[in-house]
What we know:
This protein is an alpha+beta fold and 59 residues long. 31% of the residues lie in helices and 10% in strands. The chain has two helices and two strands. The longest helix is centred in the first third of the chain and has 10 residues, at 10-19. The protein is globular and about 40 Å long. The model has no long low-confidence stretch (mean pLDDT 89).
Amino acid sequence: MRPEPTVISTATLEAITTWFPGLNLDQIRIRLRTNLEIGGVPAFWEDQLFAEADAVVQF
């Protein structure tokens, strides 16, 4: 099984569409199957949610 992102920003999804011109935003959403999409934040904002093991990141 391939790991999938569970939290992603809408801006990240929009950025990904520029990498794959044949896919639109809805197609990217279907392919990634994220659990939570967050709007109003910059692309790749979700990268800050990662921390060292046993560390808590509040958002």
